[in-house]
Amino acid sequence: MSRRKSAQKGSALIEFALSATLLITLAIGAVTFGLAVQQGIVVADAANAGALFGANGTYYITYTGGMQIVSWVAAAEASNFTATASYFCECTAGGSVVSCSSACGTDQPLYYVKVIATETYTNPFRYLGLPSTFTLQSTTVMPVQ
Known about the structure:
Elements (H helix, E strand, L loop, with lengths): L1 H53 L9 H11 L6 E10 L6 E2 L11 E13 L10 E11 L2
Helix pairs in contact: 1-2
């Protein structure tokens, strides 16, 4: 009887060690995925902030440096972050891109700003088969009011 109890104690310890290892690995994977998603949200918010700055009026569309600065400030917690801002015009929504100085018949061209935010994200934990770094990118295009 005592042999059986000691054998059961040993098997319970082995089962706990195996299951705990698996559960800890899954928990670390969930945390890693959550951190990557959080940084993706930061990058998307930074692109939106820069585009909102540029979309405030036709005066701001040529100030691409200001859109980039607003994006950098919005992504203050991100490392390896870059933002690229530009603007373009169309005669009709969804139409072909035209020069912003040209007239579209009797109408003025429609102005748009575009901000591309990019961050190189580094995984805090290393996994076999997964890259240690990857690129998060978000593009926001907004019409100018």
